[in-house]
Amino acid sequence: MNKEKKLLNTLKGKKYDIPPVWMMRQAGRYLPQYRKVREKFDFMTMCKTPEVATEVTLQPVDEFNMDGAILFSDILVVPEAMGMKLEFVEGKGPVFESPIRTREDIEKLSTDGIEEKLSYVFEALKLIKMSLNEDKTLIGFAGAPITLAAYMVEGASSRNYIYLKSLMYNDTRSFNLMMDKLVNALEIYYKNQVKSGAEVLMLFDTFAGIFSPFDYERYIFPFVKKLVEKMKKNTPETPVIYFPKGGANFYNLLKQLKIDGVSVDWTISLIDADKKLDSKFTLQGNLDPVILFADYQIIERETKRVLSEGRQLEKGHIFNLGHGILPKTPVDSVKKMLEVIRAGNIG
């Protein structure tokens, strides 16, 4: 059996004709075996029970022979560990009982004991690592500071992010304090993920694209840069992939980051993304998740298009979706996509 870690090697500069593949949110509701486990536990219990998180993490790896296993967890475990009360409401998603609205709220956020409070995550990573085949790469992850802040200040998902942006514009000092606290918490979190077996780190910035390029550069980017610098200082050998969803307008800034990969959404071609990034990074992506609801002919056509672009990249390509796989995605469509990738014929 081939023991080569294709995903890890791609981030370290090796190129393959058939790229490594995994999917964001690959452990999820589209899988019947996931739904079976979900019937027994609520979402947070699944995240906080290392044996269950391990089982669910491994499901798509076993089902599809994925090159990457991404820890089953949620980005919001970090603000919860900083003292915010989090619950998942059916049909509504994550909700914080008392959103951050004042400087006093921000001052209450604490990184004390965060390592211990998140020990269930590190325990799960250790269990997953022990269970994974040698050719698989274990991926740890967290949400970027502004993406966490968006939930923490709005209290739930939002349409306009009025509370978040008002805080950012009108009380920048308090906003910066919150962002600094998040950077410190994330530094501890990532360092312990690597210590527990994570071989690659994903930094999810789902809400990067809600800002103008000017606001992203002024208010957001300095904290991304600071966090990445801390990550690279603590664990210099561990590759980092940054995913700024909707962020193609400020890709020029990413060239300043000490990252190894950029995850690209489906709103820009891999070729154009590579040009904007001066071919500095391995690119990951970027099939539109909704393509997997199309007929097989379209899935094949679009998968081959992404593969063709990926082959032209200077630094290599990791095949992924442009965002997380959707809950009602047909499993057979995933199998079709993988069949096309692994056939190696982009014709």
TrEMBL record:
Gene3D superfamilies: 3.20.20.210
Homology family: Belongs to the uroporphyrinogen decarboxylase family.
Reaction catalyzed: uroporphyrinogen III + 4 H(+) = coproporphyrinogen III + 4 CO2
Domain Uroporphyrinogen decarboxylase (URO-D): 20-29
PANTHER family membership: METHYLTETRAHYDROFOLATE:HOMOCYSTEINE METHYLTRANSFERASE RELATED (PTHR21091), UROPORPHYRINOGEN DECARBOXYLASE (PTHR21091:SF169)
Site feature: Transition state stabilizer: D74
Official protein name in the record: Uroporphyrinogen decarboxylase
Matching PROSITE patterns: UROD_1 (PS00906)
Gene Ontology terms: biological process: protoporphyrinogen IX biosynthetic process
First-level EC class: lyase
Binding residue positions for substrate: R25, Q26, A27, G28, R29, D74, Y151, T206, H323
